[in-house]
Design a protein that fits this description.
Length: about 325
């Protein structure tokens, strides 16, 4: 069994070397949950088998240019994953990138056994994905693919971007850092030349996008760095503490991430939740009204007062 596992790991390492220009030993050790010493032994085994691997201390491993083996056959389980993969990509990628993914997947399917192709077709007919959430502006079908091209080629892009509280789109020149998905929406971090700082943008608020010929002129850090900064800033904002009954907590957990949720603690009679308290908008206050007598505002006092003002305004509107 250990020999079989080692063979599968060495083969998987070889596939990783074919799929990336450079692979670090630590990344391989993390991926296969083994020690770096084990990775060193596996790399030596590949070298003894005649695989031309170049290595540089502190940099990583790479294959000699042009060295490739014929496509590896997929297992039945791997082949079946294609059935769901294409459906998911149609759901979560914009129109242009979804088309590109389908083309790439078709090339991968072409090397499958006939029986695997038939199995995939059978499963595809039984998988249906539906979502009412608008992830992209349908008038801008190339948003994601343009962002990816910008990041890869390090070229600036221009966008027409409409903020949630604005009635018209504003033109910006940006240098994208990276793309991420959060709370069911696609976002990207980018240096904004108008604001002269790194900002977060939501893809479904882009009204137009096009690539420029101007190269990046900012020395930007990784996406992970800016996401960490975002979490730190969020923790520094004023917070609100809410008690919720067990029944209401079950309903609140579906959407609370959209309203600044930070953490929760279980108590004997329910849950105590902490939210970011945005003083500029009333998103949290209006959302909390939906849960009526199933919640209590613990702090701050200002939030209680804002809730009472909203309730009074609703009473007048109803009358």
């Amino acid at each position: 069994m250990d020999i079989d596992k080692r063979f599968e790991r060495i083969l998987a390492i070889f596939i990783q070397l074919q799929s990336k220009p450079v692979v670090k030993a630590q990344d391989l050790a993390d991926r296969f949950q083994v020690s770096i010493r084990t990775i060193y032994r596996d790399i030596r085994s590949l070298e003894k088998a005649g695989v031309p691997i170049y290595s540089e201390a502190g940099y990583g491993y790479s294959l000699a240019g042009g060295y490739r083996l014929p496509p590896t056959l997929f297992s039945k389980e791997e082949a079946l994953s294609f059935a769901v993969a294409e459906k998911l990509m149609h759901q979560y990628l914009d129109k242009e990138l979804s088309k590109q993914f389908s083309n790439a997947l078709s090339k991968m399917k072409s090397v499958l056994r006939t029986s695997d192709k038939e199995n995939i077709q059978t499963v595809e007919e039984q998988v249906l994905l539906k979502s009412n959430k608008k992830l992209f502006n349908q008038e801008v079908p190339t948003a994601l693919s343009t962002l990816f091209s910008s990041i890869a080629q390090k070229l600036q892009i221009r966008i027409k971007y409409q903020k949630a509280d604005s009635s018209k789109a504003e033109e910006r020149t940006v240098e994208p850092v990276g793309v991420f998905q959060e709370n069911g929406f696609w976002y990207f971090m980018a240096y904004c030349h108008l604001r002269q700082e790194v900002r977060q943008f939501r893809l479904d608020r882009i009204k137009d996008i096009w690539m420029s010929t101007e190269p990046f002129n900012q020395q930007l850090k990784s996406l992970a760095y800016y996401l960490d900064q975002k979490v730190t800033k969020k923790e520094e904002h004023p917070t609100a503490t809410i008690w919720a009954s067990r029944q209401m907590q079950g309903f609140m957990c579906w959407e609370r991430q959209l309203y600044g949720f930070i953490k929760e603690t279980e108590t004997e009679d329910g849950f105590v939740m902490t939210f970011e308290h945005n003083l500029k908008h009333q998103y949290l206050q209006r959302w909390l009204l939906a849960f009526g007598d199933g919640i209590k505002i613990i702090e701050p006092l200002s939030l209680k007062q804002e809730m009472l003002q909203l309730i009074d305004a609703i009473k007048k509107q109803i009358k």
